[in-house]
Amino acid sequence: MEEEQKTRITIDIYGQTYTIIGTDSSAHVRQVATLVDDRMRELSARNTYLDTTKVAVLTAVNSVHDYLKLQTEKELLEEELKKLKG
C-alpha cells in the first residue's frame, strides 16, 4: 500500500505561528488557517474583553455549530434525493 506524501507548512493564526504536518495540500491548509484567523479576529473585534483562549474556544464552538448545521442540511438533502430517485 502506498503511503501518502506528508507536507510541512508554517501558518500564522491570530498572531501565533504553527507548523502543520499532513497530507492535505498547502493551499488547503492555508485556506483553513485564513478562515480560522478571520473568525478569531471577527470575534475578538466584537468582544474586546475576551482573552486569546476564550476567542479560540468561541471560534471552535462556532465552527462546530456551523459544521453540525451543514451536516444536518446534507442529510436532509440526501433523504430528499433518495425520495426523488425512489
Automatic annotation (TrEMBL):
<dbReference type="InterPro" id="IPR036192">
    <property type="entry name" value="Cell_div_ZapA-like_sf"/>
</dbReference>
<keyword id="KW-0963">Cytoplasm</keyword>
<keyword id="KW-0131">Cell cycle</keyword>
<dbReference type="InterPro" id="IPR053712">
    <property type="entry name" value="Bac_CellDiv_Activator"/>
</dbReference>
<protein>
    <recommendedName>
        <fullName>Cell division protein ZapA</fullName>
    </recommendedName>
</protein>
<comment type="subunit">
    <text>Homodimer. Interacts with FtsZ.</text>
</comment>
<dbReference type="Pfam" id="PF05164">
    <property type="entry name" value="ZapA"/>
</dbReference>
<comment type="function">
    <text>Activator of cell division through the inhibition of FtsZ GTPase activity, therefore promoting FtsZ assembly into bundles of protofilaments necessary for the formation of the division Z ring. It is recruited early at mid-cell but it is not essential for cell division.</text>
</comment>
<keyword id="KW-0132">Cell division</keyword>
<dbReference type="InterPro" id="IPR007838">
    <property type="entry name" value="Cell_div_ZapA-like"/>
</dbReference>
<dbReference type="GO" id="GO:0051301">
    <property type="term" value="P:cell division"/>
</dbReference>
<keyword id="KW-0717">Septation</keyword>
